[in-house]
Each structure stands twice: as C-alpha cells, then as structure tokens.
C-alpha cells in the first residue's frame, strides 16, 4: 500500500539522474568517499584489533576471579605476589579452585634459523585448569614430563615452523632461555600487542627456564567460584580479607584492566582515532567539493526549476538526496575493501581484526554524516540561484 | 484600482527601479496594461527599455516595488515569497536559451513540468509528457538528451515543458532569437496554436519583426514606458 502510494506519487529522480549522467564526477566522488571509508575502517579496525589482541590469552582463562599484584600495570609488566595468597583465598566459602600462573617473557630460539625472539611463557600446574579450550586437559597432561612446552600455533612465523613440523610428526626441540625444551602439543591463543607468541609449560619447567624467579612468587592467580556466586561480593570480601600485596578482580575487569592500559597509557588509541578522524575530514572535503561544484554547474538549471514553480525546499531535497546516494554508493566499496584488507591484516599480522557490526554501523553513520554535512554546506550555494536572472 | 474582472493580467501604474542613490535608474515608469484570457500579446522595443524587467515582474520572479500587478487574480504587490512561488506553477515560461536540464532526456524534461501538477499518478504524468512531445512533433526523440537535439527541437521541448504544467499564462522571452527564420516561424505558430487550444494567454517579448503577425495585440515599449497603440 505504502509502496503503491510511493510509486504513484514519485517524480523524476532528479538527484539520481544528476549524479549518474556525470559518470566521471560520480566516480571521483565514490572513490573519495570509499577512500575515506577504507581509511576509517583500517584505523578503527587496527585500534580495536590491537585492544582485542592485548587480551587474547586473558579471555581464555578458566577463571571467575583473578589475583594480581597491585604493582602490575599490564601484561608486559607483570609483578609477582606470594603464591600463598591463593591458598588464603581458598578459605572463602564460594571458592572451589585456584590455579597459580607464572607469566613472563623468555627467549625462544627458532629451530630453523637459530635466531632468538622474546616469547610470552605461562607456567602452571598441569593438573589444574588453565584455559577454556577443547582437549586442553589432555595436552596439559603431556607437560607433567619435565622440559615439555605447548606452543601457540598462532604465534608469528618468526618463531619457526613449529606447528607444521609438529603436525608432520617430527620431534620438535629447541631452546628457551638457553635450556632444551620439547614441544609436546599445540594450542591456539594468538599473539597480542605485547607478545608475538605464546608458550605454556608446567610450573616446574618454568622455574627451570627462569631460575631467577623468586620461590613462591607468581604473577597471576586464577580463582574459580561455585556456580551462582555473586562475583562482585566475593571480590569485595577477598579484597578486604587478603593483604594489600594482592589485588582481586573479576575476569571481566581483568580484561578491561588490560585493554584500558593500552587505551589510556599508550598512544595507540589516540593515534588510530586521529587517523580515522583524518579520513573523515578528507572525505568531507571531497564530498563538499563534488557537491559544491555540482550545484554551481547546475545553478542556471536550478534557477529554471525555481522559475517553473519548484520551491527551494524541493531543490534542497535534491542536494540532500545526492548526498544520501553518494554515502550509500561510497560505503559499499569501502565495506568490501575493508573486509578484504582485514583478511590481509589477519593473515599477515595475526591480529584479530574483524569486521564487527558495530564498527560497520559506526562508519556508515560517519559517512552518512560526512555526506549530509557536505550537502548542507553545498546547499548554501543554492541560495545564489536567482530565477530573476535567467531571462 | 479595484479591477473586478477576470483578466489574466492587470497592471496599473507599475514602477520599478534598479540600483541605489545616484545610480538609481527608473526602468519601468508607470506601466499599465492588461491581457484577457486566451489573448496573444507581443511586446517589442529596443534593448534596455525594460521589457525583460516587466516580464520577470509578471512572472513573479521579482518583488514588486511600486504599483498594482495582478496575475491570475493574485495581487503581487507585497506578496510573500511563498505566494510568488505558488503562483509561478500557473505561469509557463519559455526562455531565450531553452534552459532545459542537461542531464534529463526530452521526456524527463517535459515531465519536470508535468510533475508540478497534483493529483496525477506517475504513469499519468509520464503519459501526458509523451503526449505533449507528440504534439510538438518530437515523438521520435523522447529519450534524447538536450545535447543531441537541434536548437528548434530544444525550443519545442521547452514549449512542451511549459505547457505540461497547464499554465494559464505563458511568458516567452525572445523564443526565436537563437533560431533561423523558418524554424522561428514554426515555433511561434506552434506556440500560438497550442496556447489557444488551452485558452492560455501569451505574453511574448521579441525583437523579431518576422513574427509580429501572430499577435492579437502589439505593444511597443520605450524608455520604460508602454507607447500608445499604433
């Protein structure tokens, strides 16, 4: 019914015809908008990807609460705290299990070309839960032998073709911190901004690899609670009962804590947001330029329409529709190229850069705003259309 | 002053000035005239005598400064912008240059005129536009862009566009000046024929002595004044 009414009442689609009968101009406009869109997609994608990447391991922890030292500021600068705080935490009636985790960077030797590179090593007791990953328990079991490590197959290629070799059935042995280790399994965690790769090992092996680590000192304590416990409540009471050399937080706030570090204590957020803003400004300038020259070129025609009895409002509508059409036509190639570039970034940097719905929507809104704002500015030129001048 | 009749156009002592202060020029000096329904009036005179100014005032394109100007019963002295814009829908205009929209085909250009009518569906308006183009003899050029049409054909499209809005008054400003004499003749004859079929009054400004005979009445203008009829 609505559509029928529209079909009956519709008029010549002037905005569409004005744009499409000037192929060169519309191509320039689309290229410009798409360029701005791609720039925004990339910058915001990198930004969010880096923030997400900083918590790839955090998200996988099998825990409700996390204990860290109050001196820890981020995953790349973790301080230790006494392991017995975890045992004290067990005293709380809602706590059903804990895992002590060592977390530090060690030097990994690439077994193929023998170069070394810093890798994030996690040490834990293999009999306890650590990650929520299928088959993890079975893999963890292999760590009960000394000198065994699980290697993250999403680590950057510079660490060597570990998982490929492992899957071929080869015995993969290399050095970590100058000591011989054997890869006994493959896990999938993903590199983060701070760590190019990850490995997991038992506490025993970990202490062997990093003998300087003070006895009884750990970097992260994972705490699991009874089903249905009030997490915030437990966090509060543990923070009260435990000494101040440890800080208790929920897993979610631990993740936020890490993201926040990268957001607020580094320039990443600022740099990439600024990059996106520049894309926006460039887009505005291009669309304004296109629409302004379009209105100027057609000024006598607009004046003619006014002389025929079209009111200014309907002509402003034509410019607004031009902006709307441009925004949609520019967004589509930007979105498609964004997807392609994200895939490229994922494969070459292994950062988790995904096309999220909210970002796709945000950028569409930005492009829409950009086009409509420019249309609005270009409309001022329409006021110069004086029908009295055309005779 | 209270002219109670149904004339298409009534002007009583219309004055108009351009510029300010020392530079102020009195371009229309107490002009009075009227046009009755269906009448074809030609207005001639040397350039700069105020013809075009008069035309833009009648076409509701300019604000009236002084005097009485009634078009289709609407007083334009002191009329708002909105009133003038609405009135323009009932006034057809044909320009010296054709002033077609370059990005629209002949048919679409005519439909820009038909689109001003309320109460017709898109299909009906399109059918009317085609009918008008057939009437002006361009049925084979419906989907051509102005760029691909000759000068005479463009002026025919412009006539079809002006008439498609079903005006009661048609204003034409030297419609033949860009055309050769035989084409000019055809255009003016067509204009007159169609206008009389629609009982639409015509006011045409022209320099072209070859077309003066189409007029029901001839007005001469000089120095901003209409000369007494010859």
Describe this structure in words.
Chain A is 52% helix and 17% strand. Chain A is of the alpha+beta class. Chain A has two domains: 2-53 and 267-389, no CATH class; 70-245, no CATH class. In chain A, the strands form two sheets. In chain A, strands 6-7-5-8-4-3-10-1-11 form a nine-stranded mixed sheet. Chain A has a two-stranded antiparallel sheet with strand order 2-9. In chain A, strand 6 (173-176) and strand 7 (179-187) form a beta hairpin. In chain A, helix 2 (14-20) packs across helix 13, helix 3 runs antiparallel to helix 11 and helix 3 (23-53) crosses helix 13 (312-349). The radius of gyration of chain A is 30 Å and the shape is elongated. Chain B has 230 residues and is α/β, with parallel strands linked by helices. Helices cover 30% and strands 24% of the residues of chain B. Chain B is built from six helices and ten strands, in the order βββαββαβαααβαβββ. In chain B, the strands form two sheets. Chain B has a six-stranded mixed sheet, sandwiched between helices. Chain B has a four-stranded antiparallel sheet with strand order 2-1-4-5, with helices on one face. In chain B, strand 4 and strand 5 form a beta hairpin. The longest helix of chain B has 17 residues, at 181-197. The radius of gyration of chain B is 18 Å and the shape is globular. The chains are: A alpha+beta (391), B alpha/beta (230). The A-B interface holds A 7-12, 14, 17-18, 21-22, 298, 300-301, 304-312, 387-388, 390-391 and B 52, 55-56, 59, 61-62, 82, 85-91, 93, 95-96, 99, 101-104, 108, 111-113, 115-116, 121-123, 145, 161, 165, 173.
What features would you highlight for this structure?
heterodimer, A: 391 residues, alpha+beta, 9-stranded mixed beta sheet, two-stranded antiparallel ribbon, 14 helices, 11 strands, B: 230 residues, alpha/beta, Rossmann fold, 6-stranded mixed beta sheet, 4-stranded antiparallel beta sheet, 24% strand, globular
